[in-house]
Design brief:
The protein is mainly alpha-helical. It is built from 8 helices and 2 strands; from the N terminus they run H-H-H-H-E-H-H-H-E-H. Helix 2 runs antiparallel to helix 4. About 5% of the residues are buried.
């Protein structure tokens, strides 16, 4: 998500391309991309989502490669890359391992609604554009169950399934 924000900063080529494709209506008053307005449009029309992905994904990939090169140049031997559409874009094939953090649909919906101030229908539309959980699990080397509290999740990260 962070790289997707970087590639559409005001004055960037990425933002100019998004505005050229979707119009000035996707801009906030301050000239930044209004992600909520754009999201409302692209998750109602799959062809618009594909169009947006065609603009953003190559730029995000290039930005990631730049970050990776900079980290390697400074001696980092391991990088954790959080990617919202990792499988949908077949980026998992470039990773040494994939850690999936999963939660039941109803929990995911409630969390996204609270975080992004979206309706149930808006969240479901976004989820419908993603790979289903069973398929993601099959393509992951590790799965963390994020269906409890933060301490349980931390316990899984530390190596114990139930926090131990």
């Amino acid at each position: 998500d962070e790289l997707s924000r970087v590639v559409v900063t005001p004055g960037s080529e990425g933002l100019a391309a998004v505005v050229a494709a979707f119009g000035d209506g996707v801009l906030a008053a301050n000239g930044e991309l209004d992600r909520r307005k754009l999201g409302a449009a692209v998750f109602k029309d799959p062809s618009l989502r594909v169009k947006l992905e065609g603009i953003l994904h190559p730029r995000i990939r290039d930005c990631f490669q730049d970050v990776l090169a900079a980290l390697e140049a400074t001696g980092h031997s391991m990088v954790v890359y959080e990617v919202p559409l990792l499988f949908e874009n077949n980026l998992d094939k470039q990773m040494k391992a994939v850690i999936l953090v999963s939660a039941p649909d109803e929990q995911r919906i409630a969390r996204v609604m609270a975080r992004d101030k979206l309706t149930v229908d808006e969240v479901r539309a976004r989820m419908a554009a993603q790979m289903d959980d069973k398929s993601r699990r099959a393509r992951s080397q590790y799965v963390l169950e994020n269906d409890g509290d933060l301490e349980r999740l931390r316990g899984q990260v530390a190596g114990g399934r139930d926090g131990g």
